[in-house]
Amino acid sequence: MTTMSRDTIVSIILLLFCGFMVWAGTLIRDPQFGELSPAAWPKGVTWVLTAFCVIYFLQSVIADRNGTAEVRAADPARGPGLGGWFRYYFNPIVCFVLYFTFLATLPYFGTLIGGILLVFALLSFLGGIAPKQIVIHALIAVISVGAMWALFTYGLRVLLPRGELFGTI
Predict the structure, then answer these.
(1) Which of 11, 65, 21 is closest to 41 using CA atoms?
(2) What share of residues in the chain are helix, strand, coil (percent, to 5)?
(3) Percentage with pLDDT > 70 across the chain
(4) Tell me, what DSSP letter sits at residue 2?
(5) Which of 41, 43, 83, 96 has the greatest count of CB atoms below 10 A from its CB?
(6) Exposed (0-12), middle (13-18) or buried (19+): which is 68, by Cβ within 10 Å?
(7) CA 140-89-3 angle, 5° bins
(8) Where are the domains of the chain?
(9) Closest listed residue to residue 102, CA positions, set 90, 86, 116
(10) pLDDT band at 72 (very low <50, low <70, confident <90, very high)
(11) Helix, strand, or coil here: 132?
């Protein structure tokens, strides 16, 4: 009997989570307003996520069966102790801090301004800071977040947080 790889175990956990989300989607009440059900988007996203998790599971099982599953050894670049752990995971930690800062400031800045600031900060942190890059990061942030904000606000009629500082935007 062969052992399961880390990918197979993670895919099984993700499939269990997807099963829970499918079940939870059936509990969303439909007020029968004659429009799209409130459960339509969550169910659609959950089924797409489930399909991707099934593909992930099948790929990991095939890799396990063929003996091509990747065996991960301890990374020699990671230093010892807690300091080595923080240095190794510095980029993801900063990205999470930036995201939680976005969430904390969402009531003040709103979705549009907060989203633009988040995308700009993430691009600048991960992509570097140089005059040309800052302009490109600003353009990407304004265009991408502005387009998504307009799509949800005007196209889908979703009420997004406006924020206290810029309540008229």
Answers:
(1) 21
(2) 70, 0, 30
(3) 91
(4) P
(5) 43
(6) exposed
(7) 110
(8) 6-72, 88-155
(9) 116
(10) low
(11) helix
Read off the pLDDT of residues 80-97 as tens digits, 9 standing for 90 and up. 788 888 888 899 999 999
pTM for the model: 0.65
Residues with Cβ < 8 Å from 39, sequence gap 6 or more? 25, 26, 28, 30
Rg of the chain in Å (alpha carbons): 21
DSSP state string for 64-113: HHHT-PPPPPPPTTSPSHHHHHHHHTHHHHHHHHHHHHHHHHHHHHHHHH
Those residues with Cβ within 8 angstroms of residue 121's Cβ, 6 or more apart along the chain or in another chain: 98
Q: How many residues in total does the chain contain?
A: 169
> The tokens of 17 are what?
């989570």
Region label for 119, one of left (φ > 0), alpha (ψ between -120 and 50) or beta (otherwise): alpha
Instruction: Kindly report the number of other CB atoms within 10 A of residue 53's CB atom.
Output: 20
User: From residue 82, how far is each of 13, 73, 87 by CA, in Å?
Assistant: 28, 19, 9
CB of 106 closer than 8 Å to CB of 163: yes
Question: Residue 45: which of 69, 30, 60, 25 has the closest Cα?
Answer: 25
Helix (H, G, I), strand (E, B) or coil at 32: coil
For residue 76, which of 68, 94, 88, 93 has the smallest C-alpha distance?
A: 88
